[in-house]
Amino acid sequence: MTLLNFKSRDPKRTGEKKTLSIILGIGALVGVIALGSTLAASINLNSNNPVEFGQGVAQATACDDSVVVTPQSTFFNSEEDAGFIFSSFSVTDVSSACNGKVFTIKAYKNGQNGPLDLYTTEGVAEPFSEVQVLDTAGSFTLIGAGLLSDDIQDISTGFNVNLSTGHAPVSTAIASAQDVDRITVESNDSVDGTPAGYEVGDVGPGGGKIFYYSEAGFNCGENFSSTGSPTGRKCNYLEAAPTTGTNAWTDAFYAWSGNTEDLLGTTSSAIGSGYLNTIQMSEQTNGGGMPDRAGTISLAYIGPNNTNDWYLPSIDELNELYLQRATVGGFEEGGGYLSSTEQDAGTAIFRDFGNGNTYSYSKFYTLTVRPIRAF
């Protein structure tokens, strides 16, 4: 590992020098921004909007030789104190070579070896001094550490993270912008990095409600394998397509596929198998790829966060969705929902969301569809 030191004079601190350090090493990036004394001028203190302080700085990492980190601060005023808090940051110009990597972001004050505490989360005893973000083919997900899925937003060529949020559990940014002299970003391989901090009922990275969690993980993806996720690991969560908000899904009636007579013979009922089932449905000869069928319409759905890996659930996945139907919401009362698991050449399996029973049903007739995704 090589340490390069650069001296720069801060115009607002005559005679005082700051050290800008860039550490380059395998699996790690450290870029340093002189931030503490460069608060923006002429700002509206009553706006409560984040204000960029310092400047976005291009930095090198093991997966990308030029990402840009831009910090933002927010003014606060209370009876006890007032000042600027390091409230959010963005990382942009992220290369596709970083797919599957985990970024770890920390902030430091000059003269201190340990990172600054960045935020606290209600119900967690200790403050958090780092933020971890998983890059999944240009879609970014927080990993653990108090913050939840809607505290991160995909933006052009990167992501933005908010350290202060109003939803439960509430997270509060606590690092003074005046103390933030350096921001470091490490990039490391993610073999078993699992998006954490989610519970059943939370909004997932695809914008839908999470209805199933497995701590051990399950095979998933288009090959229904233990490396089926974009980061080469098992999946741990299932979420259902949202029926409200931007890019919402609308439950409607569809026939199973364009081929209603031939047996696929390879569909599974297992958790995580629905994606492979749905692909097989859409690729079946003699009409399997016809549009506006249960399989093809599920694969074509694009969710609120530009997620495009939705599919028709297997019967076991659909059973879990039924059990959490009140939590997820938006289901047709008493309606029958199709699975991607076939019964025989002419029938597929569905679950009645009224009485909870499963039945086989002619592939030719239409039933309601709700796509899901695994991550």
Portion in strands: 35-45%
Distance between the termini: 34 Å
Question: Radius of gyration over alpha carbons?
Answer: 24 Å
Biggest sheet layout: 6 strands, antiparallel
What coarse outline follows from CA principal-axis ratios?
elongated
Describe the structure.
This protein has 375 residues and is mainly beta. The protein is built from four helices and 23 strands. The chain folds into two domains: 2-189, no CATH class; 209-374, no CATH class. Strands 4, 5, 6, 7, 12 and 13 form a six-stranded antiparallel sheet that branches. A hairpin with a 5-residue loop joins strand 20 (347-352) and strand 21. The longest helix has 10 residues, at 274-283.
List its traits.
375 residues, disordered N terminus, 23 strands, mainly beta, 6-stranded antiparallel β-sheet
Can you lay out the helices and strands and say which pair or pack?
Layout: E1 2-9, E2 17-25, E3 28-30, E4 51-52, E5 57-59, E6 67-77, E7 82-92, E8 101-108, E9 119-121, E10 131-136, E11 139-142, E12 152-155, E13 158-162, E14 171-173, E15 182-189, E16 209-218, E17 235-240, E18 252-255, H1 274-283, H2 294-300, H3 315-323, H4 325-328, E19 336-342, E20 347-352, E21 358-362, E22 366-369, E23 372-374
Antiparallel strand pairs: 1-2, 2-3, 4-6, 5-6, 6-7, 7-13, 8-10, 8-15, 9-14, 10-11, 12-13, 16-17, 17-23, 18-22, 19-20, 20-21
Helix pairs in contact: 1-2
